[in-house]
Structure formats: C-alpha cells, structure tokens
Amino acid sequence: MLKNERWLVGLHILSAFFALFWGALMGPFQTFHRSPAFVAAFPNSTIPIFSYYYQALTAHGVLNALFFTTMFITGISYYVAWRSFDRPLVGIPLAWVAYVLELVGLIAIFVVLLNDPQRSAVLFTFYPPLVAPPLFYIGLVLLVVGSWLGLLVVFLTYSAWRKENKTARIPLAPFGVMANYIMYFLASLGVAVEVLVLLLPASLGLIQNTDPQLSRALFWFFGHPVVYFWLIPAYVSWYTMLPMQSGAKRVFSEPLAKVAFLMLMIFSVPTGIHHMFADPGISSTWKAIHTVFTLMVAVPSFMTAFNIGATLEIAGRNRGGKGLFGWMFTQKWSDPVVAAQLMGMLQFITGGITGLINASAQINTVVHNTSWVPAHFHQTVGGAVALTYIGILYWILPMIRGRALYSKKMALAQVYTWGFGMTMFGHTLGEAGLAGVPRRTLSGLSPYLSEAATYWLNANAISGVILLVSVILLYANIVLTLFASKEPVTEGGYTVTKGDPTTPAILERWGLWIGVAVFLAFLVWTIPFIDAINLTEGFQILRYSPAGPAPLK
Amino acid sequence: MTLDKYERVWLTAVGGLIGSFMAALMVAYLIFDIRLPTFEARVDPANLSSTMFANLGVKKRAENAYDVVMLAKMWVFDAGKDGGSAGAPPVIRIPRGSRVTFYVTSLDITHGVYVEDHSINLEIVPGQIARQSIPFNRPGEFRIICNQYCGAAHQGMYGTIVVE
C-alpha cells in the first residue's frame, strides 16, 4: 500500500468517526430529555459533556451531519481515486493541508461549543438573526475549504489518469465520486456566500444587521444538495463495493448507474426551496417549481433501487438462493460489512417514502418543522448513510490498519441494534410529529403535549437506549481493532479499475453536464434570490443570541 | 448500452408514479387553489407601531371571517388584549365555522406557528409578514405551537385556540 494514501484515508476516516462519537453519543440523551416520563423520573439529570440540551443538539448536528460526513467523504473519495484509477494521488501536499484544515475546524467547533454553550447553540442550520461566536463559523469555513482542496486532489488525480488512459471509460466508483464533488462544489457556493458575506462579519461585529430570509435562501441552496453529498458515497459503495462484498462480482447495469449519478448531480441543486415551503418571503410559484425538481431527484434513487436489487439478486442466487424470494435469505446477513449496508437500504425505503411525503408541497404543511422531519432524516442520513459508512469502516479499517476486525459478533450486534433502534426511533418520533410535537425542542419540559405526543416521546426514549448500546459496541470495536487485534490482514479490497466500455461516451462529457447543472441552478434560483434581496428594506434585522431576547450590541 | 426488459417496466412504473404525484400536486395548486404561503410584505421589527402589528388581536372582517394579528417573540405569542393577560400564553376564541386568516411576524428571531389538527404551518421570519388562512370547523381547544427553534426557552412557547 502507498504510505501517504494509506495514512490520508485512515486518518480521515478515523477523524470522521471521532466526530461521530461525540455527536452520536448526544443523540440517545436527547431522546431521554425529550421524554416527559424520563424528565419526571430524573428531574435533575443533565446530558454528559455538552450538558445544555440545545448545546448538545448543536453538537449532534454539526459533528454528525457536517464533520463526520465531510471528513469521511474526503477520505473515501481519496481511497476510490487511488484504488480505482490505480495510481498514486496527485497533490499529496494539498491533501495533507485539507486534512489539517478539517481537523482544526473540528477542534474549533469543540472549543466554541464547550466554552460558550449558550451563545453557540445555534444548531447546525445556524439561521440568523441568531449569531454564534466567530469561532463557530471559522470552524465551518475551515471544514468547507478543506473539502474543496480534497475535491481538487481527486480531480487532479483524474486528469493525470485521463492523460494515461485517453479512450478508457471512467471506472464507476470515481465517476460517482466526481459527480458528487461537482454537485457539492456548486451547492457549497451558497453557504460560502452566506457565511463569509453575512454571518461571519455579523458575528465579528463588522456589520450590525442580518437578513434572515436571504440567509435562509442561501443556506438551502446548499442545504438540500448536501444531503445528496452524504448519500452518493453510500450509493458508490452499494454500486461498486457491495457487489464484490456480497458475491455478485459486478453491478447489474453500470451505464444506468452512471445515468443515476448524473441525474443526482443535475437535479440536487434546483430543489432547495422545498425546505422553505412555509417561508413567508418565497413565492408559492417557485415553491411549486422546486417541488417538480424534488420529485425528479427521486427518480435516480428508484433507478438505484432496481439496479442494486438486481445485483443483490445475482449475489443471492450465486449463493444458492432459489425461487422468487429465496435470494433474499441467502445474502451475507452474518457479514457485518454486507449486513450494515443491507440494513441501511431497508432504512432507506421508509426514509425515501417519507421524503416523498415531505416533498409534496401541500402535504408538507402537516409535517413541516414537526418531529416527523428528524424522524425522516434519521432513516436516510442516520440510517442508510450512517450504516453504510459503518459498513465501509468495518471493511476498510482492517485493510488500513493491517489487522482483522476485533470482533465480528460485536459488529453484527452493533449493526442490528442500530438498524432496529433507528427504525423504532423513526417510527416513534414520526408519530410524535403527527401528534404535533415540534422538532428541535426540549419536549420533556413542554407544557402543551397531548396524550399521544407524550406516549410517542416516551417510546422514542426506549429507542434511544437501544441506539446507545449500538454506539458503545461500535466504538469498543474500533478501539480494540486499532490496539488489541492480533490477526494480520493481507491487502485486499477494491479492484475494479476499468469502466464498462459499452457506456455511452456522452455520459462522461463533464463539461456538458456541469453546464446543464449550472443552467438549471440559475433557472430556478435567480428569481427567488432577487425576491429575497432587498437593499432598502432588507438587512434591517438586529443580531440575537439564543440565550435571551435582548439584541446583541 | 441496452436496457433490461424488467428495468424498462420498472422505470415506466416509476415515471408513472412520479408523474401522477406531480399531477396531483399541480391539480391541488392550480384547480383547488391549495397554495403555500407566498410573499406578503416586509416589515421592520423596529417600527411595528406604524404597521398592522400596532393593533394585535382578533379582528372580525365579515360574517364568519376573522383575522388574527399576532406577534411572535422570545418566548411568547402576543395576541394583544384578545389573547388574555400580557406575557402569558394567549387564548384566542373563534366561533365554530369561521375562516381565520393569520398575520404573524417576529419581533426578534425566527419562530414558527403550527396549530394542532389544522393545516397551518408558518415560518415566522423576522422582517417578513407570514399569512395563512384556514377554516375552523370542529369545536375544541387546539394548541398553537412554536415549531421553529427560538433559543433557550423555545420548548415553552405556545398558545391556544378555542373554537366555540
């Protein structure tokens, strides 16, 4: 193994899981404090480490959804570029700078959250006029700049590979990684403008006012595509790593997988207004238009469901499965790497369906900002994405460390407790949302809960116990694998270095597809932005801290 | 590149499904006129005295048609004298069968308005007026809940609508 690449991949993935540890650990305690029964039984208990509820919630969102995902994706993208292009990475120094930036960003977030719990509790959407201390935004900027440098390393490596392979098709895995990065870069421009032009100066006191509606528009230009940024690496694993891990050898249809990646790249950005269906400053016409694109972006996921389903059927039949459903039972349910991804897919069925419900403009009114929404995204990002990343960890960590996973049984117990716990979490929190429970609320203290709401929140805390067990199993196994595992592993893993030659060449004309993506983004975002920008009446809103109703001086 | 037979069937079904969802949403939007909140007007929270929010409360516009003009702030809804004593969660009384139009804005940061068992759900973004109109046909008490995180005491921000 190449030394730099091995360290880069290993450190990124371990740092990502370090962030996830503190973030994920908060989750179960949040379910406890949302439960009226728990709060009545233990009125004086606090959450460990990030002891203030909204501080813990901010840590949970920022560490899990921003740092865990981004650092993991940077690492796994390096791995894919290195192994699939079958050459050393180009720009190793850049890659190290990227790592250091992301790591310093992570440390900054810990410092600000621990030092200033009240003021930094702005949650991971950091909507103004709430303004956190500058270090909060600086941490995020370092993370995003680091991820941009990671992107650059992948594209430099691609361009070196292209010079050596003029006519070859791009292997599927780096194709997905590149489509992901292009989409992410376009989307991240929105949040970059929001943070650098509006929020960081407001936090530093350089400007006294904010414009919440404009900020929300800029944030959601980024905020929806970013969930696909987290999801696409999971798809890359399902399309290109799972076929080998499960015994199917290759994906059912590689060209269609590439079409799915391109569709995700193109249709992710023109969808963000569906997060602002209830906003007063966005016209209902543009809400309707974004609804159409949001439904469009479900199509590549349906294509993926067929393609992966067919691939798994081949795997199941190779392993002796017979009949219409027999192949489902002959999957490697007792291999943690495969089982984690299969459990993730099962979560994605409910996550996807609830997503379609959220996207349906008028129906969204019933669920918007209720706890139904976190129920939904804990099936997608907390279920499908996190479980797939965990599956990848169980597969890649032994290769990088050179030692076998410490305990397969522990890993299996972890996968199934996570899968079951997250399913129960989703169901109970979703029901609570339909009973009127708002999201991001310390509901255990709320005076307005109905009987049904109370029941489901108490049930939700039980799922928290199961998930806490899962978190402990996961990290015990990681630490033991790193330091106590004796059994050596010889190098193996990812080997597909050739793209399917029957793939139509037009799918690989990046310039064309970037053009389409940028054009669509302009088409459906220009007017909402013009509506949101108002130089005479906008930018009038004072800055506030979550701690109290007096504006910041 | 060839398309598998079953894959073609699947993709056609998916196209039909997504297409019918889009059609249903568009019919609801264009024919039944079920629309999401749209751009109403800007307002400066520092100068509410010259706006409709100078006069908070329940206003009768016509037979069975009411406006509720409300201010959201950390951490109460303010519906003026019609909501009961100042600083306490407001109780708003509405006759059964009326259509109520809510006009809400924020004095400070972003809040939310959600009414139990009714189709109203608004982000209350400072600087903007949020408006939504809904019928109240069933008698009972329904909670108005702030469903957007608004700081330290967000969990206690609510009100009540009594449909008589």
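qc> Chain A touches chain B through 78 residues (CB under 8 Å).
qc> done
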